[in-house]
Amino acid sequence: MIPERIKKLKAYRFPEFRKDRLNLNENPFPLPEVVLSEFKERIDGDDIRLYHSPIDNTFISALTEYTGFDGKNISLLNGADEGIYFLISLFGKEGFNIVSFLPSYKCYKEFSLMLGANFIEIPLSRDFSIDMERTLNVVKDTRVLFFIPNPNNPTGNLFARDKIVRILKEIRGFVVIDEAYFEFSKTTLAPLINKFNNLIILRTFSKSFSLAGERIGYLISNEDFVSHFNGFKNPYNFPYLSMVMGSVVLKHKDIFFERIQWIEAERERVFNELKKIPRLKVFPSKTNFLLFFVKDYKKLRDKLIEERISILDLGKGWFRLSIGRRELNDKVLNVIKEVNLLK
Ligand code: PMP
Fold first, then answer.
1. Is the pTM value of this prediction over 0.85?
2. Are 139 and 169 in contact (CB under 8 A)?
């Protein structure tokens, strides 16, 4: 009874649930006490009984204040991933090719496979910048939904704004700028949503606001697109508890911004430490993670397993390390140094 295509799908492999993991770019700080207690105070047993409109609520108002965009330009999502899923589902059915870079955030490809959409991967240049010739060849001739994570994951770099604008102009289709790390990069293309009617911005509360477990994301686009997108998604997709949590978090955003500053300083410290290690190449980052490469990686891979350190092993010597608390970062640095010294 189960269709063949569905039988072939592989379920997502969840990494081990550990508080000291550095493989999913989670925020290393727990939710502040003040946010937690205000959240508990604000939850109303009578309100939770009811269905809440995802297009008109206090969280949308808070987001309007935070982003500077009208509620009509915003659509609430259960994490940015839900936005990616909905968009691929929507455009894939219309015969659009789903496009992204290699390397890039793996869910664009995985969700395309899940949803039966055609996925095209465009290799980045050696310095992780956009190869314009290759890119324009793909986006000019076919109808595409193009995912551009900016900054990119796992490379950590921002792409040149003029290249993205050129893609926006030349594409036959839509460009999704995935700004999951926006509060770290402080760079956005959102002000262009009314200039380009094919521009969609995705954001998340998972990284900057310590809320990966609560699943809060949102999309910003022109009013027309947002109203059609809202017509496509299941109407009550966004939970009341997330609306309350999102509003409380934004009220206390300064606490999170201070932590972001700390993470950025720590990222630079770890970057400089990694840079000192011979035969290891680390790449600058505008996010809460670092990408590095080691040629003789087998010893490091084995040692990480032995020490039960969870960083993302991308294969063939490429590793992505999320910035954690200082002690944990030091533990990882020591393991890498030790392996390097054993040579
Ligand atoms: N986009 C990018 C580029 C990401 O790195 C991530 C998280 N790994 C996401 C989206 C997913 O965010 P969310 O938790 O909001 O689904």
1. yes
2. no
